Amino acid sequence: MIITIGRQLGSGGRNIGKKLSEAMKIAYYDREIIEITAKESGLNKKFFEDADEKARTGFSTGILGMRLPFLSEGGIAYGGLSNEMLFQIQSDVIRDLADKQSCVIIGRCADYILRERNDCFSVFICANEDDRIRRIIRYDDDKISVEKARDLMARVDKKRATFYNYYSNKTWGKASSYHVCLNSSVFGINGTVLLLKEMVEKTGASGFDRTPLSYEHE
User: What does pTM read for this prediction?
Assistant: First the structure.
């Protein structure tokens, strides 16, 4: 079973994903994907860090004529790597990770990348604004103000939405883009973990039926 988690900043989505992986005793991938992608591709980690969940199409300089083993097209980059190429490399790594073991994957369009699999359960975590702001302030080393926390929340959510909408044919945060959306302010972090664990255990054994519903008798 592969569980992908999209999340609003401050919703606790990353914490929920980590706790869920521990409760289900399966692997967890967030920024670890950057480390693995850099290692497998032989490229500097900074390229993937700079492009992480960003949709801009500029070029990273400094790579000339380098073969990219994780590009499905087997292409060669001349003059630099675009964000689209970096996304393709990372996508191949995500597919490879999903092939190897059950896991929780945070963000990075993983639900769209793995959309053809019937063992992939996609989740979006949101939360009430006040809870999100409190969580952002709590985990910020400099203890930023409420105003700065709200601004950061808006900027990061916009970045994630732009990235997701750019690379997928879906809308970030929209209920129809995922199997389930949960508000962590309603259920709490641990409650959300328990709900997701129960959902996955009940449906994951046989996978998810992708066959369109028939309405001929309705």
Answer: 0.82
